[in-house]
Design a protein that fits this description.
Strand order of the largest sheet: 1-8-7-4-5-6-2-3
CATH class: Alpha Beta
Structural class: alpha+beta
Radius of gyration: 22 Å
Order of helices and strands: HEEEHEHHEHEHEEHH
CATH architecture: 3-Layer(aba) Sandwich
Number of domains: 1
Strand content: 15-25%
Largest sheet: 8 strands, mixed
Number of helices: 8
Distance between the termini: 55 Å
CATH topology: Glutaredoxin
Shape: globular
Helix content: 25-40%
């Protein structure tokens, strides 16, 4: 029988770490790996561009949820925005940890969620849904320090969108009172969720920046310029002039460094 220490290393074994090399050899190895990492980045961008061109399917809008203030409809989850990301978290009787905790994996996802003001600035709302009653959800959020809008499922929403037996992330787009399902992610893959850019990459509008390969007519603004402190976003406000200067200078320096490395 093998035993492990607290870090998972088998007792009696020696870690076979990579070789220790000179700074020059390390830089060469890094440059070699960087070629593959850049290819991975470009492939990821191309996949996101393809995702923005996926066909949509119409979704019913008669689902009912329970929120902190009572019953709400599916359209209410959008909170006036066009894009909605819904993560199905398992927090309910029968789930390991109930009622003190939600599923450990779902809790880890919740811990990664960036400040929602950045998503909201891109016309996107993120919510969690579970079958736990609202008093339990409120207590859990307070205990864990989560500020994510979190609603209680009351009907077949989870079954209709493939998340009745397993966690998953659904993405929807609203045109007036019409709602379309645009994307779905579950199993391996949604562990990448949590930061603003990854969430935006699974929405039909993407990050909405000029460099992106998006269908004609999609909203796009200059790269970096929309970024703001999470307590300083204002609707329809132009980018701060000083931040434009700083981001332009940073982007120019970045591109110059990239050009030098390619030479």
């Amino acid at each position: 029988m093998t035993t492990s220490d607290e870090n998972g290393t088998r007792a009696g074994t020696v870690m076979r770490t990579p070789p220790v090399v000179s700074q020059e050899e390390w830089e060469a190895a890094r440059e070699q790996l960087l070629v593959k990492e850049k290819a991975h980045t470009r492939a990821r961008d191309a996949l996101a561009a393809e995702r923005r061109r996926m066909p949509w399917t119409a979704a019913k809008t008669d689902y009912v949820f329970e929120g902190p203030g009572g019953s709400v409809g599916f359209l209410d989850l959008f909170d006036g925005r066009r894009q909605l990301i819904v993560y199905r978290a398992f927090y309910e009787p029968g789930v390991f940890g109930w009622p003190e905790h939600a599923c450990r994996g779902c809790s880890l996802v919740a811990d990664q969620v960036a400040h929602l003001a950045h998503l909201n600035a891109r016309d996107t709302t993120l919510v969690f849904v579970s079958r736990a009653p609202q008093p339990d959800i409120a207590r859990l959020k307070e205990r864990m320090g989560w500020n994510i809008p979190w609603f209680t499922l009351t009907d077949r929403f989870d079954a209709d969108f493939g998340v009745d037996e397993w966690h998953g992330t659904n993405v929807f787009f609203r045109e007036g009172d019409r709602v379309f399902r645009t994307y779905f992610l579950n199993n391996r893959g949604d562990e990448q969720m949590g930061n603003t850019w990854n969430y935006l990459d699974i929405t039909p509008l993407g990050r909405q920046e000029l460099w992106e390969d998006s269908p004609e007519g999609y909203p796009q603004t200059p790269t970096y310029k929309w970024w703001n402190w999470h307590d300083s976003y204002l609707d329809d406000a132009p980018p701060d002039k000083k931040w434009v200067e700083i981001s332009d200078a940073g982007e120019a320096a970045f591109r110059a460094e990239s050009a030098k490395n390619k030479a």
